[in-house]
Design goal:
alpha/beta, seven-stranded mixed sheet, 9 helices, 7 strands
Length: about 240
């Protein structure tokens, strides 16, 4: 069994790097849909004993209550920045329980129960730290560890390599676990294009409902095509 810790940004200002494709209200809707899918998955997984949602979003307490999660206002942790916030919350959680901790982003729309099971099995098998990288193998979308292997959090550029290196420097066993469901987080238009391509037809969940059952998915496809055309024209102009 494990505790889950899910940091969530203010949904009003979420996913600004998608502003060329989505309006502010659409970005908020997408961010919330992905977060709900992650929380619903964790709530239903037999290996997850509790969920802790860390967020200052005004509606975070409602979101947490909907999925049986504990809402932890980020402002109560007395620090700022993702790494400091996760570090503080992790240390406080370990004073309350001795279960491993699963830290994961809220924007993993392809995450499945088998991914969570694989992470927990890997940690049980090798101990120490399990690192779930993004689809490029550079960023970190998920970490699993116990109090002894509490990592030096370094989310940001090349964080996968840095998480592994920091664990090695302390003599802590560390394993990289590559899974498509963990690898796809949605920050850039290219990530959104990959999601639309990989989202199975007839998929269930809030994200699938948002992108497949309405007009938004089709409009995004058009917007992404237009964006790609502009990029191609710019590149051709540079060559010319």
């Amino acid at each position: 069994m494990a505790q889950a810790l899910v940091p969530l940004k203010d949904l009003v200002r979420a996913k600004t790097r998608l502003s060329g494709v989505l309006s502010p209200s659409e970005r908020r809707a997408l961010a919330q849909a992905m977060a709900e899918d992650v929380l619903a998955l964790l709530a239903a997984h037999p290996g997850v004993d509790g969920i802790n949602l860390v967020s200052d979003d005004p509606s975070a307490h409602l979101l947490a209550g909907q999925y049986g999660a504990r809402h932890w206002p980020e402002s109560e942790l007395g620090c700022s920045g993702l790494n400091n916030v996760i570090g503080s919350a992790s240390r406080q959680l370990f004073t309350l329980c001795d279960e491993p901790l699963l830290v994961l982003h809220a924007d993993l729309p392809l995450l499945g129960a088998a991914d969570i099971s694989a992470v927990l099995a890997a940690r049980e098998d090798t101990g120490g730290l399990v690192v779930g990288p993004d689809r490029h193998g550079k960023g970190t979308n998920l970490l699993c560890f116990d109090a002894v292997s509490l990592p030096a959090f370094c989310f940001g550029a090349d964080s996968c390599k840095r998480h592994l290196a920091a664990a090695a420097a302390r003599g802590i066993p560390a394993r990289r676990l590559i899974r498509p469901g963990i690898g796809l987080d949605v920050d850039e238009p290219q990530d959104l294009a990959a999601l639309l391509h990989r989202l199975p037809g007839g998929a269930r969940g809030r994200t699938a409902e948002l992108l497949q059952d309405g007009e938004l998915g089709a409009r995004i496809e058009v917007a992404l095509g237009s964006l790609q055309s502009r990029e191609n024209s710019f590149e051709e102009g540079e060559v010319g």
